[in-house]
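note to self — DONT lose this again. spent like an hour looking for the file last time. sequence + predicted structure for the chain T wanted, 233 res
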Amino acid sequence: MTPLTPFVTIIIPAWNEELRISDTLRALQHCIPAHEGISRHEIIVVDDGSGDQTYQEAWPWADRIIRHTKRRGKGAALSTGIAEAKGEFLIFLDADLQDTARYAPLLLNPLLNQDADMVIAKLPAPWKPAGFGFVKRLASKGIYRLSGYKPSAPLSGQRAIRASLLDQVGKLARGFGFEVGLTIDVARLGCRIAEIDVPFRHRESGQDWQGLYHRGYQLASVGSTLFRKWREY
């Protein structure tokens, strides 16, 4: 089967990422044009109401920057980017991957070879103790019970998907439940999901109060998304 050579859109939601986003975008601008399977590409950054210099740091490296006047959540930022994307394939990446963003083309290979409709990155184990795994277990069990698909990386935000597939899925979640809701919708459609090991690294939240707050917010978003998907089922 002849591999595809599509137009690819990379969408990066960002909130207060002035210290990391320029390194992430610089790595992408070097690796994406070098990938022989990509004919054209664009990088869209959605600044989700940042209160720092995220916009200024991203400006030299992004093809487009869209600004929310106030913080609306990760899922809303991704939805904004999706609405503006021109690519046939979309890649979703976190803003804090820095130099490891150079591995982004690995997410495309199963799509280019027509072996999958959505690809999810499985990241290496964290360097330091993180949370207690409750949010991941909730997400994994919820996805399985609502779609029949058993995910290895249910919370991974590093993904690639066929743009046409998003026209078929349900309403996209606005917060940190975005990935969980998307996985359920794609699995319910009977589409092919591939999970592959990619050595991305991003900022890790520990077991301090800041980390606990982040996971609490994530837990609420995932729980809300699972409840909404259960009602749709």
